[in-house]
Structure prediction request, 451 residues.
Amino acid sequence: MTTGVLRLGRHTFSDDATLMMAIVNRTPDSFFDKGATWEEDKAFERVAQVVAEGAEIVDIGGIKAAPGVEIGEEEEKARVVDFVSRVREAFPSLVISVDTWRASVGDAVCAAGADVLNDAWGGADRELVDVAAAHDVAIVCTHTGGVTPRTRPYRIEYDDVVHEAVRDTVAYAERAVAAGVARESVVIDPAHDFGKNTFHSLELTRRLGEMVDTGWPVLVSLSNKDFVGESLDLPVGERLTGTLAATAVCALAGARIYRVHQVVETRQTVDMVNTIAGRRLPRRAIRGLQ
Amino acid sequence: MTRVVVVPGVLALLPEYAGIEDPVAELRTACLEAVGWLGADVRTFGDRQGSRVARHLLDATSRSGDEPSYLVVGNGSAKRTEKAPGHYDERAEAFDAELGAALRAGRAVREGSLARELWASVGAFAVLAELGVPDEVQVDYDDAPYGVQYWVMRLSIEDRR
Prediction:
């Protein structure tokens, strides 16, 4: 299915690399940071910080996922395009992903230097794959159950949420390849909490191995989400431990990319799990071996 | 000229215990350079774990020449510091100093009760006295980075027959 390497625009990674994708919101109202990086300079500081913390990828978004004031294409472009240019120039070895479902925005950010189009809304704009192909960038194919962007799930049920997530993301991936996106540049994402209740997201976590078994590299976006909050009855801001537990389960199953707010903690969790799993060597082992 | 190399039986030298970073990089370099100085055919002396270390070092080096060659695996005490495997023993430093001098001089080293108490691996060193007094000694490594005394030495012994 995959080709052994993962190519994200200008950047190529080996097939056993795990990658931290740090969230950078150019929004005034996203759920976790609540506008902390709304100002461009604050967002740039956030990029510099996550790079220093070891993130391989930044995921820049101009529209919060939850419902709210409608943000048109021009406003979305105004929030992200010039910012992508600035980050591209300052951090040439950083992978730049942009969280957008709109083909027109995707086209503009790719021209500005983006490497990945992270379509969190499951192919709502069918021309996004053509943009990814035209610019030879990567695309993240998510499962949302077909909901409209920026809507909350309401009484959505699945016969088998994992089966449907596998079916839909693989179909999206094949559609991207058919449109001309390089096979080694396609990533799938079950999209926890998107078009899903907490039970759905828990089941996807528990059975993530079924997505990994498709052979497409799997991205997980778990960070501080409601399925963690509802599982532990904790508000945003107190969900790190639960997020890391979910991260560990996904890492053991073989997830490759982790979209996160907290880079350092997630990197340590993923490295520890992969070391336990025998996929990564200990950093430095001397105890009892002197 | 007989060539003898002394290396410590450090399990961290084995590939099955490799990490991303090498905690004994300097020691490893010294071991490989010294073992590479030996001839093609090498007799090894060491306990079971020491023999594994010797086998690995021999496999990791390419050697030539027909000089009689010996690889002897052993090390000093494992009680040099508070964090040493055997914890700190105030007798360890003097013991190691004397042992190091004996190795350089080709004097007999026997496995006595003090060596056992200090967790020193000296069993294989008995062969050194049988091989003769070295005419030249090169000490490539002499340190106790993890509370265990390591030496890497090259001993050259003239054939006096």
Notes: The mean pLDDT of chain A is 95. Chain A touches chain B through ten residues (CB under 8 Å).
